[in-house]
Write a structure and sequence with these properties.
514 residues; 7 strands; 55% helix
């Protein structure tokens, strides 16, 4: 009997060791995916810095405000239930310093609430002022935003189509500047940089601005300067109308129709002109559930596009190997949250298996490369390349940045479960509706906020509950790691606990956002 007992004990121990090696492999693969992506981002940083070193004073051409020879443009404003911002975007577009007879405004309104009457009244107001403006109201949301854009194509008289989401406040010289770049017949799209009219509203908006600044400086500009594939960001840009048709039109089989169509157009040989220094201000989500919905749509849509476009990118002979590598990386980038979540889960048993496996925890140090790349890129985007700064950043601005960055990391980790679900659904091809991100017309800080809650999320989702559970689990593993002197993942698990707890807390708190 003793021999049998020892045999089973040996089997259990061997199973533990085998499981430990399996978790080590899973963790290694997940962190390798994150690190490779970060290093490709580092290449974009190199391209970005090289261009700015060679071209320190970039200036844009403009049409004169009264130039009657300016190209005719159709400005499309797709919206769905945007009662708080619908009037504002129409006012801003009507204020364009562009000949009034050289552009028309089409409000593509799929709304089912009082937005319809608000838009109708505002359109009538501008029609009385002599503007060429039309209210196109659909009674269904077939195809969502992509469907609205595609159905409105026959109504557009312009050879060029500018698109703005309802929460944007475009600068008066937007059309005067962007339209000068279509003299190049290969330019299909002119995309501008997003700015943030309410970045200082809360810590949540500050962290969003920090991340979006990375995309709209190092990522978009780096790809532009390196002759790589960019993406149309769905708004704050202008399309050459014929290219939309040639590339297959707006298609609603993904939740990010902007990435889909812009990749198809570029694979045909067209290009995107990115104007880094022309900002288009917009409103950031101010409550957690709206942000999570936006993140879900972007990540699921990105995964859907990876499923749809990877083969097309790989097989085309119009891209060189560097362009293909970065295009594939861009399509797979949304999987980073999935890799982070897999690494987090696999690290729990791995934290207590290192000793039995006889592997030094120094093995984990390779992941520092990715962290260094992310920190360098974020620093460049938010400090070195800050567009609105007239001189060098002060010491305290740099200190504040690093404080923000140290908050950004765990909160990004806290979003990994929600976004991992989005990526898995996208890769599986699971269809879902286009859930727009509610905006409330907030332009400043908390002091300027008014009570607006018509678009609130009302129920706690199971994912929010799971995020709370994750916060407790990772807090417990961090404590156990400290007590048992297994320090390898204590910091990682502490950050995960803080991130999941923060996401869970604000998801519940903002159910009653005011």
């Amino acid at each position: 009997m003793y021999g049998i007992h020892s045999f089973f004990q040996l089997l259990k121990y061997q199973a533990f060791v085998d499981f430990g090696y399996l978790m080590l492999l899973v963790y290694f693969l997940a962190m390798t995916g994150v690190t490779v992506y970060a290093l490709l981002q580092f290449h974009l940083l190199y391209l970005y810095k090289r261009f700015h070193k060679e071209n320190p004073n970039v200036k844009y051409n403009q049409f004169e405000a009264d130039d009657e020879n300016a190209p005719f443009v159709t400005v499309q404003l797709p919206m769905y239930n945007e009662m708080y911002v619908a009037e504002r975007i129409i006012d801003y577009v009507a204020a364009q310093e562009y000949p009034k007879n050289c552009f028309e405004i089409h409000v593509l309104d799929d709304s089912t609430d009082e937005t319809v009457s608000i838009v109708a009244a505002k359109v009538a107001e501008y029609q009385a002022k002599g503007f060429n403006i039309k209210h196109i109201h659909r009674v269904n949301r077939q195809g969502y935003k992509a469907g609205a854009l595609q159905e409105a194509m026959p109504e557009a008289k312009g050879d060029f189509i500018a698109i703005f989401d309802a929460d944007f406040t475009p600068r008066p010289d937007f059309l005067r500047t962007t339209m000068t770049y279509f003299t190049d017949p290969k330019v299909a799209i002119v995309q501008t940089r997003w700015e943030h009219i309410n970045a200082d509203y809360s810590m949540l908006t500050k962290l969003q601005a920090l991340q979006l600044n990375v995309h709209f400086t190092v990522e978009q500009a780096g790809r532009s300067y390196g002759n790589l594939l960019l993406q149309f960001n769905g708004t704050a840009g202008v399309w050459r109308k014929k290219v939309i048709d040639e590339a297959g039109g707006w298609q609603s089989d993904t939740l990010t129709e902007d990435l889909d169509l812009s990749f198809r157009a570029q694979i045909m040989g067209y290009k995107i002109q990115y104007l880094e220094k022309l900002g288009s201000p917009a409103e950031l989500p101010v409550e957690m559930n709206g942000l999570k919905g936006q993140q879900f749509r972007w990540n699921k849509g990105g995964a859907q596009n990876a499923r749809k476009l990877l083969k097309l990118v790989w097989n085309t002979d119009k891209l060189n190997w560097v362009q293909k590598m970065h295009a594939i990386s861009q399509l797979l980038a949304y999987g980073v949250f999935l890799w982070v979540f897999i690494a987090a889960i696999s690290s729990i048993p791995l934290a207590f298996a290192f000793r039995e496996l006889g592997i030094s925890t120094h093995f984990l140090s390779f992941s520092v490369l990715g962290l260094f790349a992310v920190a360098s890129i974020s620093y460049t985007a938010n400090i070195t390349a800050a567009i609105d700064r007239t001189g060098p950043a002060s010491f305290w601005e740099k200190v504040r940045f690093f404080g923000m960055f140290l908050s950004f990391l765990p909160i990004s980790m806290g979003l990994s479960l929600y976004n991992a679900i989005a990526v898995i659904e996208g890769l599986r091809g699971k269809a879902s509706s286009f859930v727009r991100t509610p905006k409330y017309g907030i332009t400043g800080t908390k002091k300027s906020t008014v009570s607006k809650a018509a678009y609130n999320t009302k129920k706690i989702s199971w994912v929010t509950i799971a995020e709370g559970v994750m916060a407790v689990v990772f807090f417990a593993t961090a404590i156990v790691g400290l007590v048992t002197n297994n320090y390898a993942f204590v910091l990682f698990h502490s950050m995960l606990s803080f991130g999941f707890a923060t996401i869970c807390y604000y998801s519940i708190k903002h159910l009653n956002f005011r």
